[in-house]
Amino acid sequence: MASRAISDADILAQSPAARARNAEDRKHGRRATSARYDRRAERIVLELTNGYLFAFPVRAIPELRGATPSQCAAVTVNRGGNALRWDAMDIDVSVAGLLLSAVGAAERRKDVARMLGKATSANKAAASRANGAKGGRPKTAAATRSRGVLLPREMRG
Question: Within 10 Å of residue 31's Cβ, how many Cβ atoms?
Answer without folding.
Answer: 21
